[in-house]
Write a structure and sequence with these properties.
It is a single chain. The chain is built from 11 helices and 24 strands. It is of the alpha+beta class and 468 residues long. The strands form 5 sheets. Strands 18-19-20-24-23-22-21 form a 7-stranded antiparallel β-sheet. 34% of the residues are buried.
């Protein structure tokens, strides 16, 4: 899920969420030590947020709306990656301009400007007159309300081309993924201390993001081994590189340790059973010299029990259901944490366990054709970032949506719509490999279960009726 959700945060800021948008730029206001020249926007509130800068070519050129111009002579005054991003935006424009004509889209696809620091982004906002909006959202698993800020400015470059620069400071709280909190605070004796100095995080969306919160009375500097910046060492292993971030008093900063990707030569599969994939990252809080560790542990490649699967998902508010009834001789075989809103489980008998011993085979359609059972779970509320206002899923509309689909039967279990159907077995490339797989989808209030097997539909119905 992490990839499904690997959409750029610049795109996310354009999605309509439970937000309040209002203009906050006042051109006459001069910046001070506290503000950056925009009503209600303080420097301290911008400096530790994740910032994203992008550039897109406009579909219509209106020179009067430009707030600055870029030339070969002043390019050095802008972030280093801007020239490359403009070139990519031009390529996107060339590829898409025919498609967007007439659909009132103001730009073609954007290109991210890599490597822009918070201070560089703030300097741009202070120098030029961007239009700004604030988004108030609680799109995080603790549903804490926070702001995110978008600043937009048109500019000209080259032979009359016009572009839109967007600077986006995201909410402090990670969207879509669970996080753990580490507080910098005072001990009982009044000395600076760390609330949880040594924590363990897991890969993916389980709890890989750490939110460092400065509850001390002054700014601190977090010096940390950065999981996203790796250097090769002489022994062939990867070693983290140190980064720094100033966190003002009362503010916070997030580090996603799930971005660590082991590249050890011995084995680079991301499995908790592989000891080479476990790593401990250190950090220090200056000027106090207090330190802590974050130990990274990939989650299991195969969750081997129902109780373990439930414990993985319960903190997200996902209360997984499992069938009390399974065909004679079958039992839970393996569960995969696909994302924090998606889980896949297989059920097998002794014959299937002996035949499909590797995980790849057990999650193939051949396994299903041979009588294996796969149950997939998707939670749409978690997919929307735990924000009910973004939840477009509505189980009451399912019968109408499937009414004209051929080859399916619409049923109902305890007020939950059920769709019975079948499909051809395929390989990982989508090519048919022979055999038919029966399917059952049951739509509950905010979640869906999808049961697949070559077993008869009546067996799948018994399992669906026993989910609990």
């Amino acid at each position: 899920m992490a990839s499904a959700l690997a959409t750029s945060a610049i795109v996310i800021c354009g999605v309509v969420v439970a937000i309040v948008l209002f203009q906050i730029y006042t051109g006459a206001e001069k910046s001070s030590a506290a503000t950056i020249g925009y009503n209600g926007v303080e420097y301290d509130d911008m400096v530790a947020r994740n910032v994203y800068v992008s550039v897109a070519r406009t579909t219509e050129t209106i020179p009067d709306r430009n707030c600055f111009g870029v030339t070969s002579r002043n390019m050095d005054e802008f972030p280093h990656g801007l020239a490359r991003s403009i070139a990519q935006a031009d390529n996107n424009y060339a590829d898409e301009k025919q498609e967007v004509q007439g659909n009132q889209q103001k730009t073609t696809s954007s290109s991210d400007v890599e490597g822009v620091s918070n201070d560089q982004a703030i300097a741009l906002l202070q120098k030029y007159h961007f239009n700004a909006t604030v988004e108030t959202t609680r799109q995080n698993f603790q549903r804490i309300s926070d702001n995110a800020y978008t600043f937009e400015c048109y500019f000209g470059y080259g032979d009359g081309g016009q572009y839109l620069m967007r600077v986006f400071f995201d909410t402090y709280y990670p969207r879509y993924v669970r996080f753990v909190t580490v507080n910098f605070t005072a001990s009982n004796g009044g000395s600076p201390a760390i609330s949880s100095p040594n924590i363990v995080v897991s890969s993916g969306d389980v709890n890989a993001t750490v939110l460092f919160v400065n509850k001390l009375g002054s700014a601190v500097r977090l010096v940390y081994e950065d999981p996203s910046l790796l250097l090769s060492s002489s022994n062939g292993k990867t070693e983290p590189r140190t980064s720094e971030k100033t966190i003002p008093a009362g503010k916070m900063f997030q580090v996603n340790y799930g971005r660590y990707s082991p590249q050890d030569k011995e084995d680079n599969n991301n499995d908790v059973d592989n000891p080479h994939n476990n790593r401990t990252f250190t950090y220090t809080v200056e000027p106090y010299g207090i330190s802590g560790t974050v130990s990274y542990r990939p989650h299991p490649s195969c969750i081997d029990s129902i109780s373990s699967a439930k414990s993985y998902y319960a903190p997200d508010g996902a209360l997984l259901k499992f069938p009390a009834y399974v065909p004679d001789g079958y039992s839970f075989a393996c569960g995969v944490h696909a994302s924090n809103y998606s889980f896949i489980a297989t059920y097998a008998n002794d014959r299937l366990r002996a035949k499909f011993q590797d995980r790849e085979g057990a999650f193939s359609d051949k396994f299903l054709v041979d009588g294996g059972i796969r149950i997939s779970y998707n939670n749409f509320l978690i997919f929307s970032g735990w924000d009910e206002s973004l939840l477009t899923y509505d189980k009451s509309k399912v019968p109408e949506e499937w009414a004209n689909v051929t080859g399916v039967t619409i049923d109902n279990i305890n007020g939950n719509p059920v769709i019975l159907g079948s499909r051809a077995a395929t390989n990982s490339y989508g090519q048919e490999v022979g055999g038919k797989i029966n399917t059952l989808q049951i739509f509950m209030d905010t979640e869906k279960y999808y049961i697949q097997s070559s077993l008869p539909h009546n067996e799948l119905l018994k399992m669906a009726k026993s989910l609990g």
